[in-house]
Queuine tRNA-ribosyltransferase
Amino acid sequence: MTERFGFTLKATDGKARTGVIHTPRGEIRTPAFMPVGTAATVKAMLPGSVRETGADILLGNTYHLMLRPGAERIARLGGLHRFMNWERPILTDSGGFQVMSLASLRKLTEEGVRFSSHIDGSKHMLSPERSMEIQKLLGSDIVMCFDECPALPATDEVVAKSMRLSMRWAQRSRDAFGDRPGHALFGIMQGGVTRDLREESAKALVEIGFDGYAVGGLAVGEGQEAMFDVLDYAPGFLPEDKPRYLMGVGKPDDIVGAVERGIDMMDCVLPSRSGRTGQAWTRRGQVNLRNARHQDDPRPLDEDCTCPACRGYSRAYLHHVLRAQEIIASMLLTWHNLHYYQELMQGLRDAIAEGRLAAFVAGFHAQRAGGDIGPL
């Protein structure tokens, strides 16, 4: 255990990296996938079950928690870790992305964003200073600076204006965060899909100085090819001795491609959201358990998986409880998806450490290309 935040890079394979982020609440093995606990819970999972999948860190959502139950209330109750019974590291986003999605309910100024709650219409102000205050009240181990995330596609003029506002907000976030040993503040690179703007953003952030750096503003409508084009160069603008976090990504092939390009951390609601809608992620790609072809299939979802859904239940049962709208369906499929994601991350870490990432990635794509085969 350490009393301060730090990052140790252990091995590289091409641009890909594996290492350890050190925090007072425990180590985070990288590349890392962070399950999303939007409202202080990973939906359909107990915290201990999330840990059993292999997760080292969770993500909480500043916007949702400030509205309900409220950051001040969580602080009075002992902080977010105690509140949700998760004693390992927590990263909280700044609230900027959620506010972006409320375009019809917000007013953006240099000061910050005034918006109406999607819950009850109440009025709120979110600024860099208020975002830092909320995340401190929550007790986040990794705090994200407040930024604006424009939806893509957008003109370079719009993206540049937004990015420069985010860089001014990054400086204000840094000033408001102050000196908090054991807690980290990450800056967020913006700039859309334009190389010069990405480089300008990275230089501004490095000059301010952060404990880690995120690549923001991707996975917002630009498509995988455009995202990978940005990731071919953007991580290289950031310091090698700091963690690099790609926000809001993604599908398994997005994750593999991002790791190949030098990303250390990722988060996405996809594995838990998919679990609640009958979608499973496996070595052979995505499987829709609602499909009638599963109703008489006695096989497990994935013969090589050791999660509870695959160890104890057939595809026929999973199909049945989904169609019957039983809660156990969301529980089992979410557990499976999170287990698969964490197994994928461990495979990537091992492959990078052993210098065989190219072979691992080739096998990953080849197995998915074969598709999900039916019962023999």
Q: What stands out?
A: The chain has a mean pLDDT of 96. The chain has two domains: 6-268, 275-368.
